[in-house]
Amino acid sequence: MKVNQRLMLSFDWACLLALLGLAGTGLLAIWSTTVGTGPNSYLGRQMIYLCVALVAFLILLYFDYHLYSDYVILLYLSGVALLALVLLIGRTVHNNKSWINLGGMAFQPSEVVKIVVIVALAKYFSESDRENLELRELVIGGLIVLLPMILVILQGDLGTAITFVPIYAALSFMGGLRRKHIVVFLLAGAIAIPAGWLMLKDYQKSRIQTVFDPSNDPRHVGYQTIQSKIAVGSGRFLGKGFRQGSQGQLGFLPARHTDFVFASWAEERGFAGSAAVLGLFILVALRLLKGAREAKDKVGAMICVGVLALFWFHVTINMGMALGLFPIAGIPLPFVSAGGSSLISSFAAMGICMNIRMRRYVN
Amino acid sequence: MNLQADSNKQLIQQRLNLFYVPIIAVAALLAVRLWQLQIINGAEYTVLAEKNRIRTIQVVAPRGTITDRNGTPLVENRPSYNILLYRESVANIEATAAFVTAKLGVSPEDFSAILGRNKATPLFHPIVIKEDVGIDDISVVESHRQEHPELQLDQEPRRLYRYGAVGAHVVGYVSEVSADELAKGVFPGARVGSLVGKFGVERTYNDKLTGDDGSRVVLVDSLGREVGLVEEVDSIIGDNLQLTLDLDLQTTAESLLEGKVGAIVAMDPRNGEILALASSPSFDPNSFSTRISPEAWNQLVNDPNRPLQNRAIQNAYPPGSVFKVIMAEAGLDEGLVDESTRVYCRGSAFFYNREFHCAAKNGHGFVGIEDAVARSCNIFFYELGRRLGISRIAEHAQALGLGERTGIDLPGERSGVMPSPEWKQRARGAKWYVGETISVSIGQGAVTTTPIQILRAVGCIASGGLLTTPHVLLRAEGGRDESQSRLEKSVAIEPETTNKIRAGMWQSVNNWGTGHGASIPGADICGKTGTVQIIGAEREKELNGNLPALEDHSWFVGFATRDNPEIAVVAFVEHGGKGGIAAAPLAREIFRLHFARKQSPVLITKAAPAGSGDRP
């Protein structure tokens, strides 16, 4: 196949470098915190996931994004079907029945479905050519999001389910919201949050409560927040060095290579290392926003915004959690946390967005 | 279409611009938070991280060992295992309690009592929940390390008293320091749970015997499991002590007292070294080397024979006729009696309008000082007492150390009472009656002495005036020779006085006197018996029977050889009957062994040492 010269020139190499930098950070942190855990190590698996993720990235980069945005209804329906299937035959990991076995590899379909939902909602909202979305469109768009979201909630994976909210919020904002609709949304939120609180499971409630008083229950939920803060804080300016982070190495830090990988990194690499990672995330976010601004059409811009919302929500919640600002939620740090589903879907989403940016001058 | 698209495009750009707000806001928030945690509070979190991973474990130093005078080990240390509870690692105290109750056999009441006792102990300080555990408990704890990382095994050196009850009253015992002792600072350096010397040499020389505890600074993981060693400070064993005791003599003394209640002490009158000190009944100090169980303790404390009491130094008894040796010294040195003094004994005599009796109903006839000692004639000493008066008696007795502690290096010594008119006025608020002087003259009445006092006083007279401080410590390892610093007083005793008393005591043993029971042909043993009436003769008749508890106390005190006293022995048996029958033969066996040992230094007694292999 022949790659268009024009496309190569428009490709955002800086953004790709930032993504590889983040993935490399993840590999280093995973290596450091899990070395010696056997031949089938987290590091080895993460490297395989990274290869798969890069392949997915290249594939999505190669085909014009209109190919999948035009047929997104099919992808959406199969995504929903997949979620329903997980509910029937899925595996339960940490209270969540959101995993499915794919050839011996545990896989979370909800991670992929999120991207499908972004494309589907972007496609649907972009078809409206009015200044603001009609109520009918908002409701249908809401249903597009709500259907998979409810399935994910039923799986028990509240952290992932919540990520649908920023997607919908960002895309409906982009589609145009009337003032009265904003009021309705705020009211709905005001009602939904207390109602949602009542629906939460006990462990989820206590996670939220202990953010406000971590010392309240040091051996249980708040314990994780305290240990994470100790890990980050004790890293100081330059960090303790490779494999020298006692909090991560000695197991005081929970999920040290997955959800709390940033705390492990901050402990061993200090403020210098963690600020660098934050800088890469900001760079990626700004490139996504730039991609949206330069997109050739509305659906491209909308997809970029949806991915940006999803990506930035993950970064905010995950890093905020590691720094003791937000409740502990099972939300991975994109590109960095150990885990194939997150890594692959993150790269896939970036593949789509960089595809959009690459084709900004192509007609 | 294009126009609309353009205006739409403008709108989209405007809306997109708003997305800078969450990006910049969140980026700023996270950056500030990172700065706050890592730069501003970094030092605090570093301390917290260190606290997390570092645990300091005290390593209890073994106490110094104790040997007899020949270097035979009496007290050593053996390794033992305790189960510790690290309360800061407890995830769920109910689960821990259930496990400890079900698998380690600690009753729920005991467990909560242990926790209650340690309420004030800092959380990071582990507490002992079961000690000196066997292999079963060790494997239970080891195999549940994953579920119960809060329970850990701790090796602790534990006292091994090789000969059990032999010498228990000298050696003493250790047990857990009490809250009261901690508060008062009785044992400097002791912490909650420390085993400290509570009795005997273990108590007196606790500071010497206590070593310097070491520590292990270890790296632990989040479950409290040791994963590495940071620093190790070795513990230093305490000073080893060599006692003056001779294990053979000690073992013999203990076996002579078996089934009796009493005490035997053997001492070198030349320097005050205690060669044997036995008190019966005895106890096994090994049962104290753990933080003793309350039942066993109560049993020992409530035993009517009080095995924990060292009768040689902690009980004062009327000395009875052994006091006559002191009377003889006073009379001779005051010049009130001499070679020619004779008193006629017809079995009884009147003093101050009251009739006093001699042990010999038909009387001894004319007796001189040597005869009076040898045959223990009461009438002679009544008369001597009348001539001396209580003040001079008390003066001489006090010079010989009666009525005051000997200063032996064992805890809990009693002083006894050497009565005088001043003493009676002070203690009882009453006037002295001259009749009391007559009773005191034969060691009855208010005078009470400990066996060690009698031994020391008689040893002083026998040696011609050297009043030693009895002691059981020969030397402490690394310490200077203690013998130089011991208090030795010189008592003015005429050589002729010593000769006369030696002669009287020699005759008592060797010339069919009351002390004949102590005689060994060829060995120049000198001695004096004593038989202390518990109740008056009339009362005995009324009872018309001899209840064993009302039998007389029996005394014997002696030394050998006559011309060169090198060993002095006191034997005392509570309610043993006649001193010549119950006590003298006990002393004889000590003398016999002493002289046999001089001829062949081979160990004669085969005291079976307690094995060290019966516990893990």
Unreliable residue stretches of chain A: none
The biggest sheet of chain B amounts to: 6 strands, mixed
Query: Structural class of the secondary structure composition of chain A?
Result: mainly alpha
**Main beta sheet strand tally, sense and closure of chain A:** 3 strands, antiparallel
What's the rounded overall pLDDT mean of chain B? 87
How many helices of chain A in DSSP terms? Answer: 16
Strand elements of chain A, count: 3
Q: Tell me, what is the CATH class of the largest domain in chain B?
A: Alpha Beta
Chain pair with largest interface = A-B, 47 and 41 residues
Number of DSSP E strands of chain B: 22
**Radius of gyration of chain A, Cα only, in angstroms?**
20 Å
Shape of chain A: globular
Compute the average pLDDT of chain A: 86
Give structural attributes.
heterodimer; A: 363 residues; three-stranded antiparallel β-sheet; 3 strands; globular; B: 616 residues; alpha+beta; Penicillin-binding protein 2a (Domain 2); 2 domains; five-stranded antiparallel β-sheet; 22 strands; 20% strand; disordered C terminus
What can you see in these coordinates?
The complex is a heterodimer of chains A (363) and B (616). Chain A has one domain. Chain A is built from 16 helices and 3 strands. Chain A has helices at 5-10, 13-34, 42-62, 65-70, 72-89, 109-126, 135-155, 158-162, 164-175, 179-199, 202-212, 221-234, 246-249, 261-294, 298-322, 340-358; strands spanning 91-93, 96-102, 105-107. Chain A has a 3-stranded antiparallel beta sheet. Chain A is globular, with a radius of gyration of 20 Å. By secondary structure, chain B is of the alpha+beta class. Chain B folds into 2 domains: 55-86 and 101-243, Penicillin-binding protein 2a (Domain 2); 247-285 and 309-474 and 488-599, 3-Layer(aba) Sandwich (Beta-lactamase). Chain B contains 22 helices and 22 strands. In chain B, strands 2, 3, 4, 5, 10 and 18 form a 6-stranded mixed beta sheet that branches. A 5-stranded antiparallel beta sheet of chain B has the order 12-11-22-21-20, with helices on both faces. The relative contact order of chain B is 0.11. The model of chain B is unreliable at 610-616 (pLDDT under 50).
